[in-house]
Design a protein that fits this description.
mainly alpha; 2 helices; membrane; transmembrane helix; transmembrane; about 70 residues
Length: about 70
Amino acid sequence: MLSGGSFGTSLGKSWLFNQEGGAANADQYMMVIENYIRSFLVSGGILFGTGLLTVTLTYFVYLFHGIRNTND
């Protein structure tokens, strides 16, 4: 998530290099870069949320499992 801007800019430059003649409209180039950055931010947010949920659920499983074993 934190380096999504640099990754998006790098992919945008790669996209520009692959265009015919290595040139494109400035508005189109900015739109491509913004979309690449946005996709990295969204995927990073999803991965962060998934990891946070996994850690939270794992903590509660160990917490409840430990309580259940001490009561037996």
